[in-house]
Amino acid sequence: MYLSTLSRPAAGGRAGPVAANVVALGAVSLITDVSAEMVTAILPLYLVVGLHFSPAAYGAIDGVYTGATVLLRLIGGYVADLTDRRKPVAFLGYGMSAAAKLGLLAAAGSGVGISLAITADRAGKGLRTAPRDALITLCTPPEHLGRAFGVHRTMDAAGAFVGPLVALAVLAAAPGSFDSVIMTSFCVALLGVMVLVLFVRDTPGPKPPREALRWRALMSGPGARRLVPASCLLGLATIGDGFTYLLVQKRADLALGWFPLLAVATSGVYLLLATPAGVLADRIGRMPVVLGGYLTLTVTYLLLAEAPGGLWLVGTVVVLHGAFYAATDGGLIALAGPLLPAGLRTTGIALIQSGQAAAYLVSSVLFGVAWQVWGIRPALLAAAVISLIALAGTALLLRPSGKARP
Q1: Distance between CA atoms of residues 390 and 386, nearest Å
Q2: Given this model, what pLDDT does residue 66 score?
Q3: For position 222, what pLDDT does the model report?
Q4: Cβ partners under 8 Å of residue 15, min gap 6
Q5: Residue 216 neighbours by CB under 8 Å, 6+ apart
Q6: Which residues of the chain have pLDDT under 70?
Q7: Does an H or E element contain 385, and which?
Q8: Distance (Å, rounded) from C-alpha 125 to C-alpha 31?
Q9: Less packed terminus of the chain by CB within 10 Å, N or C?
Q10: CA 10, CA 236: separation in Å to the nearest integer?
Q11: CA dist 159 → 36, 117, 155, 192 (Å)
Q12: By CB neighbour count within 10 A (0-12 exposed, 13-18 middle, 19+ buried), where does 311 fall?
């Protein structure tokens, strides 16, 4: 596979059915996201409004929340490739995230304890993501990867859609009982681990020679050499959901009680568009769809900076943000899978995701500081400019080769 395949689909007929393993992994992600979003939907509001964190402080926390597990992602990906066993590494990651919910209960309001529990949860996510995505690539023909990731991300989005609603239902039944929400979240996460154990098959990859399991083998190919810096650029173009929802709430003067539903609405749009976006990527090429998704994110920044407030702004931003996730979450990995060495595919995926996470950490911190020092409008305009530069750089890095080879 070569970079000339990035902009056009492979030859062939209509997409075939999605592998049973992809559906099983989608079910695990759906259940796990219900659990995760129960806890995280109100986190930005709790920190900024409830605990009066400054935008810069929130930016640091938000960045660390996503970027602090970079090394663990790489270790998990490499161990999965070295042993040719991806399911056990994914199991460890899902199990850590489930146990972290009990850690939140044990923290009993302690800031240090809550931070440790959140770190454990993100560590689990860091461990499981690359092996899970590698399993999808190993059981799917390359020409159908967009569809497979679209179906998986649709199921994942369904969990993200339901999670905050379940949390609201628990709080309606037991007002003010956040411990009940966390315990329910733990039980749901445990169910996801059980589905993984019972229904997901550990698809082995090709048996490469030992020398192929070295980093030099990964970085010598055109895929990693171009995809890793591209993923870093795309990470810099992202300021994070928490900032987006906080800005929508401020610009539209939205009542605080509606804040958790912004994530629900975004997930609903994502849920509707993820599979169509994946099928479109298989037909017209994955790179145009991914870059188009990031362009919608840039438009979101400009709207939040320049457009008048009101409910129309809420609806427009939610639709654009959901479309961004539908086009990009899974799209870059579907694009990358065939370009990475089979023996180090999980490691390569982890490296790409780590590049995004590390750049996202920088982006979140810088945006938080810019908001606090310059104000909302200049910070958003700067984010839009950086996003456009990142998109241009990514398009240049991933441009098709001059000629394809068989």
Answers
A1: 6
A2: 61
A3: 60
A4: 143, 144, 147, 279, 282
A5: none
A6: 1-17, 41-53, 55-71, 107-115, 176, 178, 205-224, 256-257, 342-343, 400-406
A7: helix 376-397
A8: 14
A9: C
A10: 30
A11: 9, 21, 7, 11
A12: exposed
Tokens of 2: 């070569």
What pLDDT does 216 receive? 60
Contact 213, 344 (CB under 8 A): yes
- For residues 334 and 278, the answer to whether their CB atoms sit within 8 Å is yes
Residue corresponding to tokens 């990031």: 294
**Alpha-carbon gap, residue 151 to 136, rounded angstroms:** 11
Listing DSSP states for 160-195 in one string gives HHHHHHHHHHHHHHSTT-HHHHHHHHHHHHHHHHHH
Q: What is the pLDDT of residue 8?
A: 44
Residue type at position 19: A
Q: How far apart are the first and last CA of the chain?
A: 8
Distance between CA atoms of 212 and 264, rounded to whole angstroms?
44
DSSP string, 6-74: SSSPPS-SS--PPPHHHHHHHHHHHHHHHHHHHHHTTHHHIIIIIS---HHHHHHHHHHHHHTTHHHHH
Put residue 132 in one of left, alpha, beta given phi > 0 → left and psi -120 to 50 → alpha: alpha
Compute the distance between CA of residue 45 and CA of residue 340 in angstroms, rounded to an integer: 40
